[in-house]
Design the sequence.
């Protein structure tokens, strides 16, 4: 299980425990102590199994748009169990939702030492790309390889998206961003290209207040903007209606655009389409024509609260290759 560690003393304790067990990589005491000291103030994750800490990772900001994987260590007996990958996934999500564009990491260039060759292969397998080698950054026996990863790829944004149900920071969302998000929605595929999904962007404080007033129990009350998703339930061909598939694709596109632009959201469909038909009240506030149904509400805003990925079944339980076995 991956835990975000808040406490500075716990961070130092964990990094000491792990780094002192990995002297092949962290041999020089002075730099090991520096890593331990600095880890106290950095975003920090630990992988824990019961009482055992398997490994840790911490990030540091090296520029307005860039985080560095400052240090990571996994106990040798826990290598090749996916611990490093899970730690990195948590850190990458964090950097992505906090609006960073790149993650960099430095290590000793391949071809120098066997242990570091493994490290290089590990970073490349995570998706890092070679940026540059700096021969004198450390010393001539340890040429520094810098790897970089862009966080603004579709695959990374998909991994970083999670439903956000916390409070939003005050302040409006620029209209250009709301239009970019809406465009991502209408760019989605639709059955027979019938384009059955429409959206209404809401950022007028009075209209927002009216919508918030009919959401009971209340959700997204601090959102500075809403994207209201509408569907027209017409057939694509013969008696086949793909309106649900059409608006689902549009919603997912918009959720991804929202996250990529540094905002958060949640797919509120169940909540507004229940027996109390909040969706119809929203439709009436927005003067939506009868042939359209309001099906989903997406708040858009900057997150005020921390949040974490929900637990999901492991890939091996849901993804199979070539047959069910
Ligand atoms: C069709 C649909 C309806 C949903 N309706 C709601 C809702 O009414 N309220 C809510 O809090 N989340 C709603 N969600 C969000 C899911 O609860 C959420 O996607 C799920 O728990 C997985 O979490 P994740 O989005 O962080 O991966 C809905 C999601 C889908 C796909």
Sequence:
């Amino acid at each position: 299980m991956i835990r975000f560690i808040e406490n500075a003393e716990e961070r130092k304790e964990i990094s000491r425990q792990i780094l002192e067990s990995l002297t092949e990589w962290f041999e020089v005491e002075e730099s090991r102590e520096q890593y331990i000291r600095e880890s106290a103030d950095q975003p920090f994750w630990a992988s824990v199994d019961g009482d055992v800490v398997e490994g840790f990772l911490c990030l540091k900001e090296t520029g307005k748009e860039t985080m560095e994987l400052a240090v990571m260590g996994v106990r040798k007996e826990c290598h090749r169990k996916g611990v490093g990958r899970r730690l990195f996934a948590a850190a990458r999500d964090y950097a992505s939702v906090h609006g960073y564009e790149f993650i960099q990491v430095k290590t000793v260039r391949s071809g120098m030492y066997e242990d570091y060759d493994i490290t290089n292969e590990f970073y490349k397998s995570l998706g890092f790309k070679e940026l540059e080698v700096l021969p004198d950054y450390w010393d001539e026996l340890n040429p520094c390889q810098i790897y970089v990863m862009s966080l603004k790829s579709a695959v990374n944004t998909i991994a970083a998206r999670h439903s956000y149900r916390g409070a939003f920071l005050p302040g409006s969302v620029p209209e250009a961003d709301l239009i970019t998000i809406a465009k991502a929605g209408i760019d989605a595929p639709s059955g027979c290209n019938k384009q059955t999904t429409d959206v209404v962007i809401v950022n007028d404080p009075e209209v927002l207040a009216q919508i918030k007033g009919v959401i009971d129990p209340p959700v997204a009350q601090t959102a500075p903007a809403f994207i209201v998703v509408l569907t027209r339930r017409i057939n694509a061909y013969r008696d086949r209606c793909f309106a649900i598939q059409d608006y689902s694709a549009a919603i997912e596109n918009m959720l991804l655009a929202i996250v990529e632009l540094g905002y958060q959201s949640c797919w509120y469909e169940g909540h507004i389409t229940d027996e109390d038909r909040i969706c119809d009240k929203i439709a009436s506030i927005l003067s939506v024509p009868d042939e359209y149904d309001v099906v989903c509400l997406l708040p858009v805003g900057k997150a005020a609260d921390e949040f974490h990925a929900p637990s999901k079944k492991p890939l091996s339980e849901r993804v199979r290759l070539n047959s069910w076995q």
Q: What stands out?
A: The chain has ten helices and ten strands.
